[in-house]
Structure formats: C-alpha cells, structure tokens
Write a structure and sequence with these properties.
single chain; 171 residues; mainly alpha; 7 helices; globular
C-alpha cells in the first residue's frame, strides 16, 4: 500500500503539474519535485506509524510527479529536435540508476545491520545534491521560441558536465 500510494499520487499530479509548469516556469516545479522526493525519503526514516509513512509517501509521490512534465519541457526548450531524445535519455537514466542502487542497497542491508529507516535517509542524499545543482544551474527560458547557443549542439554526458563546470546551463 505504501508503494502504491506513492505511485498513484505521482501519476495523478503529472497533468496538473504540467499545466502549472507551463504557467509558472519549469525550474520551480523541478525544485519542488526534487525537494519532495528527497525530503520524503528522509522523513520516511523518522516515521513511527503506518499512517505517518502513508502521508509521507503520498506527499512525496505527488511532489515527485512534478519532475517529468517540467524537466521534459525544459529539455525541449534547450535542445534541438534532433538531439532531444539523447538529452532526455541522459536526464532520465538517473532514475533507473537510482532504482538499481536502492535495490542493491536493500539486498546488502537485508542482514538487518543498516535497517530500512537508514536506507531511506541515505537515499535522500543524491536528491538533495540534484536539488542544489538544479537550483544553481537550471534556467527557465523567458520567451517561447528563444534560441540558445546550445540548442543545435550535440548533447552528451560530457557536454552536460562541461556546461555545469562552466556555469553555463544546458538545461
């Protein structure tokens, strides 16, 4: 039920999240999504009842659901159509890698020494790091149709890292 509550609230929020992102900007909702995911994971480690955990998972899922529509739109604004698939792949591979790492951590910690609470708290750290990176480097385009100097360039992991290092956002 806890996993389902997260996924249901995640799915339900995506349409309204996309509409709000269109109206108020992508960066705000990307930040809210990362904050919700990270804080939700951290708070799970402090829950003491099922209903507390359910509330944390519902809120975390709803805020996490803001990520996909807002980040997809930002990527579309900053990349040419010929490079958009690659850019989306780079951004969304993070979730898959995170899932694999979490399952590996659960397997390693199944002996009871680490405990599920600590796993939730530890898993919040990458999200908080991504939150800081998004806050400092992501930029919303102010006008529709504005071309950026990066729009036609090849988008690769190296290009993204170089962009972050030079403080010139690619997304």
């Amino acid at each position: 039920l806890l996993m389902s509550s997260y996924l249901i609230s995640y799915a339900v929020i995506q349409l309204p999240g996309g509409l709000l992102s269109d109206r108020f900007g992508n960066k705000l909702f990307m930040i809210l999504a990362l904050l919700g995911t990270s804080a939700g994971s951290l708070l799970m480690g402090f829950t003491s009842t099922f209903y507390q955990a359910l509330a944390v998972r519902l809120l975390g899922g709803a805020l996490s659901g803001l990520w996909f529509p807002s980040s997809s739109k930002m990527i579309a604004q900053y990349t040419s159509s010929s490079r958009r698939g690659r850019a989306l792949g780079i951004v969304y591979i993070g979730g898959s890698i995170g899932t694999v790492l979490i399952y590996a951590m659960v397997g390693v910690s199944s002996n009871g020494e680490v405990g599920w609470r600590n796993l939730f708290m530890i898993s919040s750290i990458p999200g908080f790091i991504c939150l800081a990176l998004t806050y400092f480097f992501a930029k919303d385009l102010k006008e529709k149709g504005v071309e950026t100097e990066n729009r036609g360039e090849d988008v690769s992991l190296g290009f993204v890292l170089k962009s972050i290092k030079s403080h010139h956002p690619v997304f």
